[in-house]
């Protein structure tokens, strides 16, 4: 028996599943975790040792491998073509000659190992002192190099020699005026952009500049989802199989964006600034949102209630047949406990009638939170207590006689500031006869597609989806247009552009007498 075991041992060892070197290299690159589970360690400038995620390649070279620039520090790309070769595409030998030679030799496994371990580049010169030196063992070195060979190797799906294909997603149940406003803006932008580059094909054949080589026309697909959300994942996969897109731009819905969010993560398809107040949960890299939507409103309100009503009781009213209302109530229920405030709840499956309002009026509460739409608030009786309502749920409704105690949780820039900030976008829309039915949606859609266009232009001909998302992070706060949301900005790996709301009486929001409301950032 012992002889049989000894004979079988080599075979069993060979048959055992071997770790995927690319996956192991990805863990080193992204998480700073070595093959044996211990943290990566690297010695940087001034002999400072960094470990774990702090030492991971992604910290400086980013997920895409295209690097970054921060002040005087420029982190060079380490994508597969940059490290291991691959010449720029050129239509003829003359332009290939004009493109010139590489500024350093390509790396092979030995020279790259030397660079990583000792900081000596392929040309024999020392790398910048900011680049840590990593004493990797042979197995971890091989795994990291295997992953680097897969890093942004070439154009991602949705891009060919002449076209960039984009799509926008429309959930069922959206007000047709809103969805049409979004589509009209997207189609007009794509039409204008494609019409303005009639000479680009000739420049591409004649020029050496990457901005000319990068030229592509845009194609916009419309992905209209149907039926129950449980069927949306397969519909999205079917759309992508039929005609793969490079990215999703804008999009609109009043149900949870989670199915679209999950699709983007599974397929690594960026989704840029959908018009939704119910963003997907669970983190992720590929979807960039305007804000946290109803959760942001609830968290800001929790801060306001703790500041003004500590130790008192609050009643919130929620519609069980309204996904946005329910999401806001859940978020407030999560955010408020522990702040010395008791939270009660009235659940409605219909528009509140006189008996509902009578029950609400008799409730022992120092303030009301009404997660209701404008038509539900139309019959709100006079209240001496503070009444808080969601600006997202009220929409553009202008209540004829709002209660004196009404305070609106307002997720947009104040109207007097917004008029100035969005003037350029409003002029663009007015010139094309667009946006009258849903002005906020039209302005935010124009911002989303403008950020997309700016980011694509900055990619030059490096059509990597990861690099595109990283470029959106930067372009969002530098694009010439502005959205309706306050103070949009993104840092590395942030995915919610606007991080605050206002809470004030309708008159104060419109610039009435008194102090201007302050932005509340939870």
Automatic annotation (TrEMBL):
<keyword id="KW-0408">Iron</keyword>
<dbReference type="InterPro" id="IPR028082">
    <property type="entry name" value="Peripla_BP_I"/>
</dbReference>
<dbReference type="InterPro" id="IPR036909">
    <property type="entry name" value="Cyt_c-like_dom_sf"/>
</dbReference>
<keyword id="KW-0349">Heme</keyword>
<feature type="signal peptide">
    <location>
        <begin position="1"/>
        <end position="15"/>
    </location>
</feature>
<keyword id="KW-0479">Metal-binding</keyword>
<protein>
    <recommendedName>
        <fullName>Cytochrome c domain-containing protein</fullName>
    </recommendedName>
</protein>
<keyword id="KW-0732">Signal</keyword>
<dbReference type="GO" id="GO:0046872">
    <property type="term" value="F:metal ion binding"/>
</dbReference>
<dbReference type="InterPro" id="IPR009056">
    <property type="entry name" value="Cyt_c-like_dom"/>
</dbReference>
<dbReference type="GO" id="GO:0020037">
    <property type="term" value="F:heme binding"/>
</dbReference>
<feature type="domain" description="Cytochrome c">
    <location>
        <begin position="20"/>
        <end position="152"/>
    </location>
</feature>
<dbReference type="Pfam" id="PF00034">
    <property type="entry name" value="Cytochrom_C"/>
</dbReference>
<dbReference type="GO" id="GO:0009055">
    <property type="term" value="F:electron transfer activity"/>
</dbReference>
């Amino acid at each position: 028996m012992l002889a049989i075991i000894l004979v079988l041992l080599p075979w069993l060892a060979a048959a055992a599943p071997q770790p995927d070197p690319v996956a192991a290299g990805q863990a080193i690159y992204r998480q700073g975790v070595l093959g044996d589970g211990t943290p990566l360690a690297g010695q940087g400038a001034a002999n400072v040792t960094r470990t774990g995620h702090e030492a991971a390649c992604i910290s400086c070279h980013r997920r895409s491998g295209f690097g970054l620039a921060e002040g005087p520090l420029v982190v060079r790309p380490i994508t597969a073509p940059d490290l291991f070769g691959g010449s720029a595409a050129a239509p003829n030998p003359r332009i290939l000659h004009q493109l010139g030679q590489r500024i350093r030799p390509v790396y092979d496994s030995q020279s790259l190992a030397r660079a990583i371990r000792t900081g000596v580049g392929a040309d024999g010169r020392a790398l910048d002192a900011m680049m840590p030196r990593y004493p990797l063992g042979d197995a971890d070195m091989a795994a990291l190099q295997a992953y680097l060979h897969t890093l942004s190797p070439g154009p991602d799906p949705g891009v060919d020699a002449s076209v960039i294909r984009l799509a926008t997603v429309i959930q069922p149940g959206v007000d047709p005026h809103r969805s049409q406003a979004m589509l009209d803006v997207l189609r007009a932008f794509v039409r204008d952009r494609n019409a303005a580059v009639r000479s680009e094909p000739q420049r591409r054949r004649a020029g050496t500049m990457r901005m000319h080589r990068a030229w592509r026309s845009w194609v916009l697909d419309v992905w209209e989802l149907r039926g129950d959300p449980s069927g949306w994942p397969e519909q999205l996969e079917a759309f992508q199989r039929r005609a793969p897109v490079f990215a999703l731009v804008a999009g609109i819905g009043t149900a949870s964006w989670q199915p679209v969010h999950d699709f983007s993560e599974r397929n690594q398809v960026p989704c840029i600034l959908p018009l939704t107040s119910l963003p997907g949960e669970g983190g992720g890299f590929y979807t960039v949102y305007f804000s946290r939507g109803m959760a942001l409103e609830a968290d800001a309100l929790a801060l306001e209630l703790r500041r003004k009503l500590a130790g008192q009781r609050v009643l919130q009213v929620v519609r069980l047949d309204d996904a946005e209302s329910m999401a806001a109530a859940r978020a407030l229920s999560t955010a408020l406990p522990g702040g010395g405030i008791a939270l009660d709840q009235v659940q409605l499956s219909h528009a509140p009638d006189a008996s509902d309002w009578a029950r609400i009026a008799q409730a022992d509460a120092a303030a009301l939170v009404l997660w209701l739409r404008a038509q539900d608030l139309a019959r709100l009786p006079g209240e001496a207590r503070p009444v808080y309502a969601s600006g997202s749920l009220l929409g553009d409704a202008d209540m004829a006689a709002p209660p004196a105690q009404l305070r609106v949780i307002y997720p947009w820039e104040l109207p007097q500031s917004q008029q100035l900030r969005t003037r350029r976008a409003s002029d663009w829309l007015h010139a094309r006869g667009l946006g009258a039915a849903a002005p906020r949606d039209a302005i935010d859609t124009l911002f989303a597609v403008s950020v997309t266009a700016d980011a694509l232009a900055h990619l030059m001909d490096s059509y990597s989806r990861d690099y595109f998302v990283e470029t959106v992070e930067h372009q969002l706060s530098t694009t010439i247009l502005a959205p309706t949301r306050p103070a949009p900005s993104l840092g590395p790996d942030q995915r919610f552009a606007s991080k605050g709301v206002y809470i004030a009486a309708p008159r104060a929001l419109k610039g009435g007498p008194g102090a201007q409301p302050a932005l509340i950032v939870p």
